[in-house]
Here is the input.
Amino acid sequence: METTRHWSSISGSETVVLCPLVRSRCSSS
Here is the structure.
């Protein structure tokens, strides 16, 4: 998934949007 890319990139703005989508990773990070 390309979502992981933005995760480390922004790790703030996108995280809030992807958090609900990939809650599993949100908790891990």
